[in-house]
């Protein structure tokens, strides 16, 4: 038979104190005599009482919970980000509640459910998002940080790597490696990360009076990288440099080049990725990439999320160029 979980009311009854006194003890707010405090502590230990953070949030109007909302949890970069964010929140004494939008559900669809929990704040970690989710948080007076993207509207905070600058770095690195015919394999076309990485890449090539790169865009997946690379090389067999919108796409591109198209990497085609997620350092791929400053991004996100007096901020942090074997030395 399952034992009933003790409540604040049970603790108050066994300790011979008011429920308000137990509530003040649990929240840490309000004065209590030493005798009352000791009686409550003794009963809590005896009955193994644990406060319910959700119930406490519903009664107080705000919980000690930060909601993490994701839509790309299958991409290897995001589990790494999730682990680091969770670790930092726990270090700050905050609890986490994870929401993952599985297609056809979107992050915007999840927001009414997220806000039901009276969370203290929301971190949205997806590159593809319109302004509706952040707007809903702002309307409900819930701090929100968009992580790894920026908003084109002034609602909520955002933290992102300088993706335009990263795209420019990719163009320069491929050209220094001897490439003369460059192309771009993109992810979700509407994602701010994809748009900016492509934009910086094309901007730099235009400055150097080079032809616009052949481009295919669809998804941030290995399968898309594998498929798109074959299509691009069939249409433009002289391509000798590929900038991929992330490392997952780049790994698919490398396998397509080696195992379907019979091209050597990097001797025949140089491949450049973005993010520096775990697959990039795998010996089978050794992807030259832009490393996102994840820990610095998380630290900045926490500062913005927990500072109630801070106005909306949109921060760009610099990525780091990491050379590996998918490109020739400069």
Description of the structure:
The protein is α/β, with parallel strands linked by helices. Helices cover 43% and strands 15% of the residues. It is built from 12 helices and 12 strands. The chain has a 6-stranded parallel beta sheet with strand order 2-1-3-4-5-11, with helices on both faces. A 4-stranded parallel beta sheet has the order 7-6-8-9, sandwiched between helices. Strands 10-12 form a two-stranded antiparallel ribbon. Strand 3 (121-125), helix 7 and strand 4 form a beta-alpha-beta unit. Helix 1 (8-15) packs across helix 2 (19-27), helix 1 packs across helix 3 and helix 5 (77-91) packs across helix 12 (294-306). The chain is elongated and about 85 Å long. The chain starts with 7 loop residues before the first helix and ends in an 8-residue tail after the last strand. The model has no long low-confidence stretch (mean pLDDT 87).
